[in-house]
Amino acid sequence: MNISVAFIGMSIAILMFDFLAFSKKKMSASISLVWFAFAVMLILFAVIPMGQPWRKPGMSALYIPNLIFFGFSVFGLFLATIAISVLQTRNRELAMQVSLLNQENEHILQRLEALEKVDEE
Fold first, then answer.
1. 44 and 35 Cβ atoms separated by less than 8 Å
2. Which of 39, 59, 75, 81 measures 20 to 30 Å from 13, CA to CA?
3. First-to-last C-alpha distance (Å) of the chain
4. CB atoms within 10 A of CB 68
5. Burial of 18 (0-12, 13-18, 19+ CB in 10 A)
6. What CA–CA distance (Å, rounded) separates 18 from 31?
7. Is 39 exposed, middle or buried (CB count within 10 Å of its CB: 0-12, 13-18, 19+)?
8. Taking each helix axis from N to C terminus, what angle separates 3-23 and 29-47, rounded to the nearest 10 degrees?
9. Looking only at Cα atoms, what is the longest distance across the chain?
10. Full-prediction pTM beyond 0.90?
């Protein structure tokens, strides 16, 4: 198994999951852009040093456990960022709802004060 092919495959999977999460509105645009940049960096990391002498073909067996661990770690971080993005979106929506409720509460208090003035007269 060539390490470069594994990195390119991992970056394509990240791009695919990133696009799906962004299109389903589970990830904000800024976080999606960070994951896109990370995937591009993985592609560059895999493609640029392909012909370098320090990348020996027989050494790939030593890198497989590290690559598997790296893949699971990246996938875990991706799921965590989706959860964070969903929570940020919910927090923003709740803040808007609280603002609307406060505005409605002020309106009700103003009407109550007006009614109390009418009752006093």
1. no
2. 59
3. 89
4. 11
5. buried
6. 9
7. buried
8. 170
9. 96
10. no
Summarize pLDDT for 35-68 with one digit per residue, the tens. Answer: 888 888 888 777 776 555 555 666 666 667 777 7
Which residue type occupies 36?
F
**What number of residues does the chain have?**
121
Which amino acid belongs to residue 31?
A: I
- pLDDT tens digits, residue range 14-27? 899 888 888 888 88
The dihedral built from the CA positions of residue 115, 117, 119 and 121, taken in this order, carries a sign that is negative
Q: How far is the C-alpha of 18 from the C-alpha of 74, rounded, in Å?
A: 12
Asked if 65 and 26 touch (Cβ cutoff 8 Å), the reply is no
